[in-house]
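Our preliminary data section would be incomplete without showing what the modeling component actually yields. Below, a chain of 70 amino acids is followed by its predicted structure, encoded as tokens that our downstream tools consume directly.
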Amino acid sequence: MSDGSVQLWKEANPTIALDGISDAPTLAGHALQLKSKERAQIAMNFNAGNYEIAASYIWRIVHRGIVAAP
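Predicted structure:
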């Protein structure tokens, strides 16, 4: 960095885009912050065609995490 450029942030473990996965259980399995019961519920609703229920459930979980963050 002797050229005057500043590197503000570098991710230690780069995020992998899962855009090639369309199988709900496989995709939900990558949500490691969720409990296995939560992942199963999301996958079950998605496979049943209950997309709005699955999305609402995910939104509640995300919102719960945002509100609980310090």
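The longest helix spans residues 51-68. The CA atoms of residues 37 and 54 lie 13 Å apart. Preliminary results of this kind motivate Aim 1 of the renewal.
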